[in-house]
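Weekly puzzle thread! Below is a chain. First person to post its structure in token form gets bragging rights.
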Amino acid sequence: MNYTIHQLQIFLKVVQKLSITKASEELFMTQPAVSIQLKNLQDQFDIPLTEVIGRQLYVTDFGREIATIAQRIIEELENINYKTIQYKGILNGKLVISSASTGKYLIPYFLSGFLNKNSGIDLVLDVTNRSKVIESLKNNLIEFALVSQLPEKLNVEEESLVENKLYLIGNEKERMKNKSLIYREDGSATRMAMEKYFDDKRGKQRKQIELSTNEAVKQAVIAGLGYSIMPLIGLQNELLQKQLFILPAKNTPIVTQWRLIWLKGKKLSPIGKAFLDFVRSEKQTILKNNFDWYNQY
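Winning reply:
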């Protein structure tokens, strides 16, 4: 066997993209160069790693097993690099996190102090809908995810950060019966909590308005389009300015947990471990300094 780390990296990208063209674009290489390196790797094995049927590239079962091993090799090599840097007293590298959209009101406060102490770290923070967050975690494209509801059928470890409190919100102090209910998009954790609440209390409600982001829901409620159950964590300014009001509703707030999660059994990078240690040691201080208002509701 005489394969190289570079060949394994190229093969992993081809496996991820299932396309030599797309892999070459992400690797900033020409298609022939990727094809040559893939062939050189294949020549080390008697069993095919990939096959082309029609014009579609497929990874064989053997190829997927090799890809899993290759991923571990690459991660261990990165750990060697990180360990070398650690012994020099400097953390250097990339921290990749994906957050459910409402988590953008929380996660920056847990990142700022850590990044200030470790200026050599590059942060990649993807703020998107919950479904995409879980998909990225499932495919091992990120180190951590920030969610308010644990994913089903996915084994994860977690660190709880703070309660996620959801209230019925309107732009007036009292609720008018003729206004619509405004929902988040399908798959949103807030949508799931809202559906469960109304299913339990009054039977299924017609989803008269559906919007794709928490900010869009917030602006719709401020404009008087209707009411919604919303996470308190993103409403501080609007409540203080009396643009929005918490409306009385039985069995509210609905309480879930904001959690930092990662795949069970995943070997965290030294940067990931350092960030998790920081979160655990500084969590109470961060919450006290930045979210004291939150505990008043």
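Puzzle host: Confirmed. Bonus trivia for everyone else. The first strand starts at residue 50 and ends at 53.
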